[in-house]
Design goal:
Helix content: 25-40%
Shape: globular
Order of helices and strands: EHEHEHHEHEE
Strand order of the largest sheet: 3-2-4-1-5-6
Structural class: alpha/beta
Length: about 170
């Protein structure tokens, strides 16, 4: 059995609050704390690989996680919003190709990306499956966890974002 985690990046600065390129938009204070908690949240998943969009907010979301688990980050533009907006099928096909190879090999993998990339990937992965997700999009820091037997998804569940006490946190 293999597990695939589709993780939306942690909370980023709002688009209106950022003057630079969208790919360079960083995590806000809440997102930085969420990212620090990711290693603990995914420690029991026995991950073998971590793929991420090349957007700064995705890289920052999984950097500490990959370091804590001693996994090399597989960084790709094909999981970015920019590529998805230009050619949605390219992002989904790329993900399908790499993911099915890892799933077939029984590897547990995590993919960090964006809405709408992740919902499109989920739709493709569940196209011929009877399982359905509890929710149809992810909030920052949330994930879908898919369990596979061979190439068949047998279960999909929702994993909430790490819980953060925000009393002293500037959001």
């Amino acid at each position: 059995m293999a597990t695939l985690v589709l993780l939306r990046h942690a909370k980023a600065l709002g688009r209106a609050d950022w003057l630079g390129e969208d790919e360079d938009r960083p995590l806000n204070n809440l997102g930085q704390v969420q990212a620090r908690k990711m290693a603990g949240q995914f420690a029991n998943f026995q991950l073998n690989k971590v793929y991420t969009s090349d957007a700064v907010r995705c890289l920052d979301t999984v950097k500490e996680l990959s370091e804590a688990l001693d996994l090399e980050l597989q960084i790709t533009k094909h999981l970015s919003e920019y590529v998805y907006r230009k050619k949605p099928e390219r992002s989904v096909e790329y993900a399908k190709e790499i993911l099915y190879a890892d799933i077939k090999a029984g590897r547990n993998i995590l993919v960090c990306s964006h809405n709408p990339v992740l919902p499109a990937m989920l739709d493709r992965l569940l196209k011929h499956s009877k399982v359905k997700p509890e929710i149809d999009h992810l909030k920052p820091g949330e994930a879908w966890v898919l369990n596979f037997e061979g190439k068949k998804c047998i279960e999909v569940s929702h994993l909430p974002a790490p819980v953060i006490a925000t009393a002293n946190l500037e959001i």
